[in-house]
Amino acid sequence: MRAAVPFIAAFLLSGLPAAAQLFDPTVTINDKFSERIDIGISTNEIAISSDFSGADITVFGAIDGADELLLATFAYDIVVSLEGPRISTTVRRKERVAGIWINRHSIRFEPIPASYSMSSTRPLEGIAPMMELASRDIGINNIRLVPTGGIGDGSRVAEFREALRRIKQTGGLYQRDPTGVRFISKALFRASVRLPANIPVGLHEVRAVLYKNGEFVMEKVIPLRVVKTGLEQLIFNYAHSYGLAYGVFAVFLAAVTGWLSSLIFRKD
Amino acid sequence: MTIYLPIAELSVNIFVILGMGAAVGFLSGMFGVGGGFLITPLLIFYNIPPAVAVATGANQVVASSVSGALAHFRRGTLDIKLGVVLLVGGLAGATIGIQIFTMLRRLGQLDLIISLLYVVFLGSVGGLMLWESVNSLRRAAKNQPVSLRKPGQHNWVHRLPFKMRFKRSKLYLSVIPVILLGFSIGILTSVMGVGGGFIMVPAMIYLLRIPTNVVIGTSLFQIIFVTAFTTIVQAATNFTVDIVLAWLLMIAGVIGAQYGVRVGQKMRGEQLRAGLALLVLAVAIRLAFGLVLPPDEVYSVVSGSFGF
Description:
- The complex is a heterodimer.
- Chain A is of the alpha+beta class.
- Helices cover 24% and strands 40% of the residues of chain A.
- Chain A has helices spanning 17-22, 68-72, 130-135, 157-170, 231-241, 243-264, and strands spanning 8-9, 26-29, 36-40, 45-48, 55-64, 76-83, 86-97, 100-113, 116-120, 147-148, 174-177, 181-183, 188-195, 202-212, 215-228.
- In chain A, strands 1, 2, 4, 6, 9, 11, 14 and 15 form an eight-stranded mixed beta sheet that branches. Chain A has a four-stranded antiparallel beta sheet with strand order 3-5-13-12, with no helix packed on it. Chain A has a three-stranded antiparallel beta sheet with strand order 7-8-10, covered by helices on one side.
- By secondary structure, chain B is mostly helical.
- In chain B, the strands form two sheets. A two-stranded antiparallel ribbon of chain B has the order 1-2. In chain B, strands 3-4 form a two-stranded antiparallel sheet.
- The chains are: A alpha+beta, B mainly alpha.
- At the A-B interface, strand 7, strand 8, helix 4, helix 5 and helix 6 of A face strand 1, helix 3, helix 8, helix 9 and strand 5 of B.
């Protein structure tokens, strides 16, 4: 079931100046500490085929200037996440009206990550106070879900948020692995992050956050583009960019199929 | 063996899709119907998003109606003039229908309306057909003559103005009911993904008194153009035509239809109609259950500006 990282690394964008800017890592540092976290991935773009059934990507990293004693006592914690492109999302709720189940209420949320896959050195509760984690959107339950537009009296927002998180999790788009980050030598670590089978295409972010005794030290974000390859994706792109021509072709194909069949099976 | 459908964005078993196409093709050949009204619900039962099922169903109907209309054209049982008048209404109806489709999709009520329309139309057409065919079967059992059309009898439809002469149908008929019929079928084509033959054929026979021999060819002729138009507009505005899915259905469908025609020729008309009626009712009941039974998950998530 789990394919072991069968990626075709594509370096299509690496030669372009705009791409270089796009793929620059961003960092946030707490000046109180001298430790630094660094991560690396082998490519800025991963190409998946249409029959992709999910895989793990491995992110390697190191803590620079780590205190050996603190390392030995597990004082450092790391959370690595892969966040999908942000898309505005609507949640609808069915209700029974005159015996029939119909969509009655809906709440629209400001753009949220289409997918979110998180690995950490231990369960989040043990890493830092929830307030701190929530302020940085770390963890499935801490992803900010801000309703937009009409929300009625607001009393239903909590239910809708919960439903959104539940559906994202059951669909495999949001997932967590509380032991997915492991130290391989003193300050070197590897994190395995799950790519779900239905991973959305677009610009994702690999985000690594370092905590020391529950305090934020540093965050580093590397962009990662996910593209789909193959004939099916070609058809998808064509259908969305040249809808009219695609439709004409679909009709042409149908007409030819019908005409040929009437020739082949002609009875007279 | 699974195949990935690029527009429906899911993997399906290719043999299930081919089997579905062949079975519906067989039935459509046997009963002389387009099959769109069976394909779309079957695709929905197989978890294809209803929006994709409808648009792809329309595309599939193009192939089966081209094949059928050509056969009727060779036999001379196609009234092109009548077909063109129907088509004028049909294209107008399809244009309005696509607007309705897009609006319903944005409101999140598309799936519900598609299911409701299918339940209402399949339920009533199936019920009427069953009633009519059971009566004919009983009459046939008593050796009474069976007649569908009562020529010479006129109704209110024949007193309307703007009359036109349709030579092949041997009719002098107002264009108003013809255009109106085409218009309503056009709306159904774009919202339900059907050719509409299952409503148009009885309406032409019973309401417009068009001779039975030209009815099927003529309705197929106009279905070609209305479903072609619907396919193109759906592809351009809603991006919901899945060409891979449609082509698999077409190939299996046209082959299945050949065998269906052979079986159909050996059976009696009343028996065929009763069989079709039962099938149509079964699909309607299955869809009705989907509307009434409590869903596993009352919430649904839609990404982007609007979706399925």
